[in-house]
Amino acid sequence: MDSAAVTVICDKFNLQSNLGALRNRQLRESAIVAAALSAVAVGLTGRGSLNRVPKEQITKELTNSLKRDNDRTAAQVMAQVLQTTTERLPVGEEVLIESTITEGVRVKPGYEAGGNPTIAVGALFGKPQHRQRYGTSMPASVTLLSMGNDVIEGTTKSVTGQHSSLTALFLTESNVKRHLPDIYVQRWMAGAWFHDFNPREMSLVDSAAAVAAAYGMSEVNELSAFFLDRKRHYPAMDQLNEAGITTPYDKDGDLFPAVVLGHEGISFPNGRRLDAMIGEIGGSAEWAVGVLPLVWRGGQAIGMLTSQSALSRKDRDPAKQWNERFNFTEDEFIMIQDARFEHKPHFTIHDILEDPFAGGIAAFGAITDNYYLPLMEGVKADHEADCVTVNVFVVNSMGLMECWCLRLKAENSLEHSTKLLSSPKTDLTELKGADLERAIGDHLADEDRRKQFRIFFNNEYYPAMIPMRDRVVMLHRVIDDLIERGALAELDSKIVAITERLAPEWFVEPGD
Fold first, then answer.
1. Among 94-108, 259-273, 443-457, whose mean pLDDT is lowest?
2. Backbone CA torsion sign across 21, 22, 25, 26
3. For residues 309 and 325, what is the distance between their CA atoms, to the nearest angstrom?
4. How high is the pLDDT of residue 505?
5. Which class is domain 3-175+357-422?
6. CATH architecture for segment(s) 185-351
7. How far is Cα 17 from Cα 398, in angstroms, rounded to an integer?
8. CA Rg, the chain, in Å?
9. How buried is residue 383: exposed, middle or buried, by Cβ count under 10 Å (0-12/13-18/19+)?
């Protein structure tokens, strides 16, 4: 660390939390560093990567591959920071972190390939003896923490270099009641608290009026409602516009706008604030990771599950997409029941977490310049000084909002540090046969590289893994399915097979 500066964005406390285990400064700062270094890694390796490709060579497949590269890099570094921190905590301050809310499933409903690299549900970070005992009795001195993440919010922006791409995670002492299925969530959110209501029993304009009243607005046309620019949203935007409600929109990224809804320091060029989301539809991980810090700030949010299959159909016009947003497929109904949402037509954060105001912290590392908070500039490298600067937006469970500006000095050179921040897969993509097996063996032979490789393996192949304490069951047919969908390649099947052969202690065999 070369230098650090902290700017307080808002110092209004909610008086409902005392930070709990997150009073431990090292633990709080580990979340900040995890967001910071993962942003730095993407900023130095893959930010704007699509801009380096001639336009005539850009394809959807190439774009998705570059997006996966950035997801992989961010997930790798974020996980390494958390694992390194938890391994070094002294006795009496130890924690075990479980990833409980994240993007990424075996097969996404609809047309998305799914399986994008991430820190998956079930991933554990802590000392080996604690990971091995997870699910059984744990020493009283070990605090269990839940983690939510979207390793990159605005992944498309990360490869095009556009504004407001960032890394995102939260840690909380609260247990998780339900795991949100990875399908679309329709949302009603604001930076002011409003009473729970059933969105299916109200028109969009009536629900907007309830949110406007929470802000103390006398007329609904004083409200603004944010949307992603997707054709599924056009009918809702038209309805709200007819009532005089402005609907600012963006091409990508609806997590960070949710976090800062209602903040007095944010306004658009026309003077309107960023107030709410009224019927906007986006990912479930983005909903949860954005809602918790919003609630810490005094806000409120309601969600409803919608059909990702129906909403991702290309042969539907906007009105038909909107009207069919609850036309769930059988597979989606199974996902909803497995997550115990069959009796929850709408929900709040209290349906997801046992105690939203248990000790917690959320951190967002700026990969690119942030439009909403201009002081959150993107990653900046100074190659002459071998330094890099990164900004992290932080909200804790007491409602305090800060921006941390960190200037990091490379121990050797920035070029060397950039290589260390890369995923182990970078060394494997051009190899095959004996060379591939030798390279994987080299990773496994060194203690530090072995830990890095295992994190990569878990982040990359989690759709085909079932965690069992500190080992996993591999689902080989799922690997084949993901290759068929284009989420993985034949190389991945070979990496899995070689790893199973060289590190059998990582895996559970039938009958174990």
1. 94-108
2. positive
3. 9
4. 95
5. alpha beta
6. 3-Layer(aba) Sandwich (3.40)
7. 5
8. 22
9. exposed
Q: Which two structure tokens, joined as six digits, stand for 296?
A: 């810490």
pLDDT band at 221 (very low <50, low <70, confident <90, very high): very high
CB 114 within 8 A of CB 71: no
Other beta carbons within 10 Å of 215: 16
Asked if the model's pLDDT at residue 1 lies above 80, the reply is no
Integer Cα distance of 87 and 20 in angstroms = 20
pLDDT digits (tens, 9 = 90+) for 39-84: 999 999 999 999 999 999 999 999 999 999 999 999 999 999 999 9
* Rounded Cα gap, residues 284 and 319, in angstroms: 22
How many Cα neighbours within 13 Å face the side chain of 191? 21
Is the distance from CB of 377 to CB of 369 less than 8 angstroms? yes
| Interior angle at CA 462, CA 349 and CA 132, nearest 5 | 85
Contact 361, 170 (CB under 8 A): yes
Task: Please provide residue 123's backbone torsions phi and psi, each rounded to the nearest 5 degrees.
Answer: -65, 140
Q: Taking the domains of the chain in order of start, what are their residue ranges?
A: 3-175+357-422, 185-351, 425-512
